[in-house]
Write a structure and sequence with these properties.
heterodimer, A: alpha/beta, D-Maltodextrin-Binding Protein, domain 2, four-stranded mixed beta sheet, 12 strands, B: mainly alpha, 2 strands, about 70% helix, transport (chain B), MetI-like (chain B), cell membrane (chain B)
Chain lengths: ~450, ~300
C-alpha cells in the first residue's frame, strides 16, 4: 500500500511540475492601474560590483522619476559578449523585453522573428536626445525604413600601444607609428627588450582573426566584399599586403611572440601582463585590460590605425544597441525607450554619469561611445562632462581622437566570413612557409562558396 | 535502455481472461509504471523531442520570423560548405587515432595494473584522477602548460632536455590532431581502465595456469586468454569510444580556440556549433546534425551486427 501511495504521489508531483512548466503567462506587462513592467538584460553581474551598484542606482532613480514604470533587470553572466548565449536566447524566444545586441545582429534578430518595429515610438517624446544621435548609427539598426533598435555604443579601431614598453625600447610614446612599416620597426625594437614581450600582437582564432583582418584591410583601402555584396573582394594587393606585413613581423623579425591562435581574452591577458607592445583595438579595450585583466591605465595610449604608406584609408567600426521584443504593448515600448534614453543616452546620467564614475575603477575620458553627431547639443554636453571628470590622462587618446579615420562597417554574413579568414590569419602566423597568395585564394573561394550558398 | 521487471507468475486458478487479466496486470505493476514516467518524461523532453525537432528543422528555413519547408536545400547548402569535408576528414582522423591510442593504451594500463600485487587501490585512483577533473580545466592545463609552443612549455622543455626537436603543438597543422588525441586519452582513459580491470579480474586464473603449462609466454597469454575473455567488453568499449570521439568538440574549442591553424582542428561538431551559434543558420546546423546522426547510426548498426555475428 505504501508503495502505491508513494507512486501516486510521485505521478501527481510530476504532473504538477510539468503543468507548472507549461503554464503560459498572459502578462501583458501592464496592470489595471496603468503600471508598466519591462525586463531589461545586461545588468552587470555581481563580480562587477561598482557597475552593478551604478545600474541599481539608475533603476531606483528612474523608477522614482517614472513611478508607473517598473524595471526588472536580468543578468545572465556572459550574455552581453557571448554570441552563442545570445543566439540561444533568441532562438528559444527567451530574450528580455528590451534586449542587447551587436550592430551585426540585426539580420539574425529579424530572422528569428523576435524584433519589433519601434519607428513610431523612436522620437524626441520618448528619447529626448533622439535628434542628436548620429544618424549613421540608427541606420545600422534600420531595415526597409523601419528602426528595430536604439544604438547605445559605437567604436572604431585604432592602434593601442604600451607607453611603458615604448620607453623601455627607446621609442617616443608621443610619436607612435603612423604606417605599417613604422609598426614593424617599433615591434622589432620592443620585442628586442626580451622577457617574452611581443612587439605587436594579433588575433587568429575564434572568428576574431577574420574580424581584425577586416580592420587591417580597411586600413589598406581594401574591402571584404564587392559592392553588390555577392563576391569576395579581399584577394587583391591590399589583402596580400595585410598578410605579408604580419608574416614579415612574425617570421621575418620574430617580433610577434611564439604563442599564436589568440582570441580576444588571450591577447588582452598578455597585454595586461605587460607582454604586448602594440595591437589593434577600440578605446574600451584599455578598460577591459584594467577591469578584467588587472592591467594599468597609465601604461596605455592610442593612435589612429596606421596605413601602408600614410594615414589609414579606413578603419572598422562597430557598436551595440537595444532591441525590443515582439508583442510588447505600446506602453512597454515607450517605457523601454524612456529607460534606454535615461541610462544610455542622457549626458550626466547612466553611462554618461561621469561624476559618479570618476572615483571608480572605470575610465572617464576615453573617446567613446561616440553616440552623438558632431556639433549636436548632446555631444557638446557629453564632451564637457567628460573633460571635467576625466580620471585618465586624456592626452593618451588625443592622437586617436584628433585624427579621425573614415569608419566602415562590417560586411554582411560577417561571422561566417570571419571564420574563413581566421584560417588565412592563422596560416601566416603559424607557418613560416605559408604562401600568402594561396591562403587568400583559398579564403576567396570559400567565401564565394558561402555567398553563393546564401549562408 | 529501460527494462521492466517481469510480472509475478499468475497463480493457478486465479487467471482471468481478457480485460480483467490486463487490468489486474496493470494494477500489479502500477508503481513500476509510475516510477517509469519520470525517466520516460526526461528522455522524451530532453532527448527524443529535440531529435525529432532537429530532424524537422533540417528541412525548414526560418527567415524574417517565417518558417518554410525547403526540402533538401539545407543539406545541399551544408554539403557546399567549404569546411564540410575538412571537418569530416579531421573527425575521422581523430577517431582513428583515438581508437589506436585511446583504446589500446587503457587496455595495457589495465593489464599492467592487474599485475601489481600491492598499492592496487592507490594506482587505480591515480589513473582515474584525470576523469574527475572537469574537461575544460584539464584541457586548459594542456593548452597553457603542456602545449605552450615556446621552450617554456612543459613538453617542449622535456623534449629539449632530451636533445630532441621541440614542437609547435597546437600551432602546427600536422600536430593538431595527435595533440588533441593525447590530451583526450589522458583525460578519459581512467574510466576505460577501471572497466578493463573489472573484466580482467573475472578471468579464471586456471586459464593462465594452463596456458603457462603449455609454454605460452606473456604475449601468447594476452592473445589467447586475455583478449578472448574480454572480447565483449572490448567490443562494447570500442563502439562507445568511436561514437564519443566522432562527436569531438571540446578539444578543438579549448585547445585550438575553435578551428585551429588553417582549419586543422575543425570537427563536424564544431562546424555544427559555428553554423548554429555564429552564422545565423540553425537549420543548416540541424541538417549537419542529422547527417552526423545518420553516419553514427549506420556505423553502430553495422558494428553491432558484425560483433553479434562473430559472437554467434
Amino acid at each position: 500500500m505504501y508503495r502505491k501511495v508513494a507512486a501516486l504521489s510521485l505521478v501527481a508531483g510530476l504532473g504538477l511540475s510539468l503543468t507548472a512548466c507549461s503554464t503560459k503567462s498572459d502578462d501583458s506587462g501592464t496592470t489595471a492601474d496603468g503600471k508598466v513592467t519591462i525586463t531589461v538584460d545586461c545588468q552587470p553581474n555581481a563580480a562587477q560590483k561598482e557597475l552593478l551598484d551604478n545600474w541599481n542606482a539608475d533603476v531606483t532613480e528612474f523608477q522614482k522619476q517614472n513611478p508607473d514604470i517598473t524595471i526588472k533587470s536580468i543578468s545572465v553572466g556572459q550574455q552581453c559578449n557571448n554570441p552563442p548565449d545570445f543566439t540561444a536566447r533568441l532562438a528559444g524566444g527567451t530574450t528580455a523585453d528590451v534586449f542587447y545586441g551587436y550592430m551585426t545582429d540585426l539580420q539574425q534578430v529579424l530572422d528569428s522573428g523576435q524584433a519589433l518595429d519601434v519607428t513610431p515610438y523612436a522620437n524626441k517624446d520618448n528619447v529626448p536626445t533622439w535628434d542628436s544621435i548620429d544618424p549613421a548609427l540608427t541606420s545600422v539598426f534600420t531595415d526597409a525604413g523601419k528602426i528595430y533598435a536604439v544604438p547605445v555604443k559605437n567604436y572604431s579601431m585604432g592602434l593601442v600601444y604600451n607607453k611603458t614598453l615604448f620607453a623601455k625600447a627607446g621609442l617616443d610614446a608621443n610619436n607612435p607609428p603612423k604606417t605599417w612599416a613604422e609598426v614593424r620597426d617599433a615591434a622589432k625594437k620592443i620585442a628586442a627588450t626580451g622577457d617574452g614581450v611581443s612587439g605587436y600582437s594579433e588575433y587568429s582564432a575564434g572568428n576574431t582573426g577574420g574580424w581584425h583582418f577586416t580592420s587591417l584591410l580597411y586600413s589598406q583601402g581594401g574591402t571584404i566584399l564587392s559592392e553588390d555584396g555577392k563576391k569576395a573582394a579581399f584577394n587583391g594587393p591590399e589583402g596580400k599586403q595585410v598578410l605579408q606585413n604580419l608574416k614579415d613581423m612574425r617570421y621575418g623579425d620574430n617580433s610577434m611572440g611564439a604563442r599564436q591562435l589568440l582570441q580576444w581574452g588571450d591577447l588582452l591577458t598578455n597585454a595586461a601582463a605587460g607582454k604586448v607592445g602594440m595591437f589593434v583595438g577600440a578605446p574600451d579595450t584599455t578598460q577591459a585590460i584594467v577591469s578584467q585583466f588587472q592591467g594599468k591605465y597609465e601604461d596605455w595610449a592610442m593612435a589612429p590605425l596606421p596605413g601602408q604608406d600614410g594615414p589609414a584609408k579606413g578603419t572598422l567600426g562597430g557598436g551595440e544597441g537595444y532591441f525590443f521584443k515582439k508583442d510588447l504593448t505600446p506602453e512597454q515600448v515607450k517605457a523601454g525607450l524612456k529607460w534606454i534614453a535615461y541610462q544610455k543616452l542622457t549626458p550626466g546620467k547612466g553611462q554618461f554619469d561621469y561624476a559618479r564614475a570618476k572615483p571608480q575603477n572605470y575610465p572617464v575620458g576615453l573617446p567613446q561611445p561616440l553616440l552623438f553627431a558632431n556639433g549636436s547639443e548632446a555631444q557638446k554636453q557629453e564632451l564637457e562632462l567628460r573633460k571635467a571628470n576625466a580620471n585618465i590622462d586624456t592626452a593618451n587618446f588625443q592622437l586617436f581622437e584628433a585624427t579621425p579615420v573614415p569608419i566602415k562597417g562590417e560586411p554582411r554574413d560577417a561571422q561566417a566570413i570571419y571564420a574563413v579568414l581566421d584560417s588565412a590569419m592563422s596560416g601566416v602566423l603559424t607557418d613560416p612557409k605559408a604562401n600568402v597568395d594561396t591562403l587568400l585564394k583559398t579564403a576567396e573561394d570559400k567565401v564565394n562558396q558561402l555567398l553563393a550558398a546564401g549562408s | 535502455m529501460v527494462t521492466i521487471a517481469p510480472a509475478a507468475p499468475v497463480q493457478a486458478g486465479a487467471a482471468a481472461p481478457g480485460n480483467t487479466g490486463r487490468q489486474s496486470r496493470i494494477k500489479r505493476n502500477l508503481s513500476g509504471y509510475a516510477f517509469l514516467i519520470g525517466a520516460i518524461a526526461c528522455f522524451a523532453l530532453f532527448m527524443w523531442y529535440p531529435m525529432i525537432r532537429g530532424f524537422v528543422m533540417s528541412f525548414q528555413r526560418t527567415r524574417r520570423g517565417e518558417t518554410t519547408w525547403v526540402g533538401w536545400d539545407n543539406y545541399i547548402r551544408i554539403l557546399d560548405d567549404p569546411s564540410f569535408w575538412i571537418a569530416w576528414k579531421n573527425t575521422f582522423y581523430f577517431t582513428g587515432l583515438a581508437l589506436v591510442v585511446g583504446f589500446v593504451v587503457p587496455f595495457f594500463v589495465a593489464l599492467l595494473l592487474n599485475e601489481f600485487r600491492h598499492a592496487k587501490g592507490y594506482l587505480r585512483v591515480l589513473v582515474y584522477l584525470p576523469v574527475m577533473l572537469p574537461p575544460a580545466s584539464a584541457l586548459y592545463l594542456f593548452k597553457y602548460y603542456a602545449y605552450d609552443p615556446s621552450e617554456a612549455g612543459l613538453f617542449n622543455a622535456v623534449l629539449k632536455s632530451l636533445n630532441l626537436p621541440t614542437s609547435e603543438w597546437m600551432q602546427s597543422p600536422a600536430m593538431t590532431i595527435p595533440a588533441m588525441v593525447l590530451a583526450s586519452t589522458w583525460m578519459n582513459m581512467g574510466g576505460a581502465v577501471l572497466i578493463y580491470l573489472a573484466s580482467l579480474q573475472n578471468i579464471p586464473g586456471e586459464l593462465y595456469e594452463a596456458a603457462e603449462l603449455d609454454g605460452a609466454g606473456l604475449w601468447k597469454r594476452i592473445w589467447h586468454v586475455t583478449i578472448p575473455q574480454t572480447r565483449l567488453i572490448l567490443a562494447l568499449l570500442a563502439m562507445m569510444q568511436i561514437v564519443a570521439t566522432m562527436q569531438l568538440f571540446v578539444e578543438p574549442l579549448i585547445l585550438a580556440n575553435g578551428a585551429g591553424t588553417q582549419d586543422s582542428a575543425t570537427s563536424v561538431a564544431y562546424l555544427i556549433y559555428q553554423h548554429g551559434f555564429f552564422q545565423n543558420d540553425l537549420n543548416g546546423a540541424a541538417a549537419l546534425g542529422v547527417i552526423m546522426l545518420g553516419v553514427l547510426a549506420v556505423f553502430s548498426g553495422f558494428y553491432l551486427r558484425l560483433t553479434t555475428r562473430n559472437e554467434s
